[in-house]
Amino acid sequence: MAHTTVDKGELMDQVKQQIAVANAQELLTQMTTKCFKKCVNKPGTSLDASEQKCVSLCMDRFMDSWNLISRTYGKRLQREQSNM
Protein backbone atom coordinates (compact mmCIF):
# COMPACT_ATOMS: atom_id res chain seq x y z
CA MET A 1 0.00 0.00 0.00
CA ALA A 2 2.82 2.43 0.82
CA HIS A 3 4.30 1.81 -2.62
CA THR A 4 1.15 3.23 -4.24
CA THR A 5 1.38 6.37 -2.09
CA VAL A 6 4.96 6.97 -3.25
CA ASP A 7 3.88 6.55 -6.86
CA LYS A 8 1.07 9.08 -6.37
CA GLY A 9 3.51 11.51 -4.75
CA GLU A 10 6.00 11.10 -7.59
CA LEU A 11 3.22 11.57 -10.12
CA MET A 12 2.06 14.76 -8.38
CA ASP A 13 5.64 16.09 -8.40
CA GLN A 14 5.93 15.37 -12.13
CA VAL A 15 2.62 17.10 -12.83
CA LYS A 16 3.67 20.13 -10.77
CA GLN A 17 6.97 20.28 -12.65
CA GLN A 18 5.20 20.08 -16.03
CA ILE A 19 2.82 22.86 -14.98
CA ALA A 20 5.77 25.01 -13.89
CA VAL A 21 7.49 24.48 -17.27
CA ALA A 22 4.27 25.32 -19.14
CA ASN A 23 3.85 28.49 -17.04
CA ALA A 24 7.44 29.54 -17.73
CA GLN A 25 6.95 28.96 -21.46
CA GLU A 26 3.74 31.03 -21.41
CA LEU A 27 5.48 33.82 -19.50
CA LEU A 28 8.32 33.90 -22.03
CA THR A 29 5.87 33.91 -24.96
CA GLN A 30 3.82 36.77 -23.48
CA MET A 31 6.90 38.79 -22.63
CA THR A 32 8.43 38.30 -26.08
CA THR A 33 5.20 39.20 -27.87
CA LYS A 34 4.49 42.31 -25.79
CA CYS A 35 8.05 43.66 -25.86
CA PHE A 36 8.53 42.94 -29.57
CA LYS A 37 5.32 44.80 -30.44
CA LYS A 38 6.28 47.70 -28.17
CA CYS A 39 9.92 48.05 -29.21
CA VAL A 40 10.44 46.80 -32.77
CA ASN A 41 8.85 49.06 -35.37
CA LYS A 42 10.55 47.72 -38.49
CA PRO A 43 11.66 44.07 -38.08
CA GLY A 44 14.94 43.33 -39.82
CA THR A 45 17.90 41.04 -39.52
CA SER A 46 19.02 42.61 -36.23
CA LEU A 47 17.93 45.06 -33.55
CA ASP A 48 19.45 48.51 -33.42
CA ALA A 49 20.77 49.92 -30.15
CA SER A 50 17.55 51.71 -29.19
CA GLU A 51 15.46 48.60 -29.90
CA GLN A 52 17.84 46.46 -27.82
CA LYS A 53 17.60 48.92 -24.91
CA CYS A 54 13.80 49.09 -25.20
CA VAL A 55 13.45 45.28 -25.27
CA SER A 56 15.80 44.90 -22.31
CA LEU A 57 13.93 47.48 -20.20
CA CYS A 58 10.56 46.06 -21.27
CA MET A 59 11.58 42.54 -20.26
CA ASP A 60 12.92 43.82 -16.92
CA ARG A 61 9.64 45.63 -16.18
CA PHE A 62 7.61 42.61 -17.29
CA MET A 63 9.58 40.28 -14.99
CA ASP A 64 9.39 42.73 -12.06
CA SER A 65 5.61 42.93 -12.51
CA TRP A 66 5.32 39.16 -12.84
CA ASN A 67 7.35 38.60 -9.68
CA LEU A 68 5.30 41.12 -7.71
CA ILE A 69 2.04 39.51 -8.84
CA SER A 70 3.38 36.01 -8.06
CA ARG A 71 4.51 37.00 -4.55
CA THR A 72 1.21 38.74 -3.83
CA TYR A 73 -0.80 35.79 -5.11
CA GLY A 74 1.33 33.35 -3.08
CA LYS A 75 0.79 35.37 0.11
CA ARG A 76 -2.94 35.49 -0.54
CA LEU A 77 -3.07 31.70 -1.03
CA GLN A 78 -1.16 31.20 2.23
CA ARG A 79 -3.58 33.48 4.10
CA GLU A 80 -6.59 31.69 2.68
CA GLN A 81 -5.13 28.26 3.54
CA SER A 82 -4.36 29.32 7.10
CA ASN A 83 -7.93 30.61 7.51
CA MET A 84 -9.40 27.23 6.60
Automatic annotation (TrEMBL):
Keywords of the record: Chaperone, Disulfide bond, Membrane, Metal-binding, Mitochondrion, Mitochondrion inner membrane, Protein transport, Translocation, Transport, Zinc
Pfam families tied to this protein: zf-Tim10_DDP
An annotated GO BP: protein transport
Origin: domain of life: Eukaryota
Family matches, as SUPFAM superfamilies: Tim10-like
Membrane topology of the entry: Peripheral membrane protein
Function: Mitochondrial intermembrane chaperone that participates in the import and insertion of some multi-pass transmembrane proteins into the mitochondrial inner membrane. Also required for the transfer of beta-barrel precursors from the TOM complex to the sorting and assembly machinery (SAM complex) of the outer membrane. Acts as a chaperone-like protein that protects the hydrophobic precursors from aggregation and guide them through the mitochondrial intermembrane space.
Name of the protein in its database record: Mitochondrial import inner membrane translocase subunit
Organism of origin: Drosophila navojoa
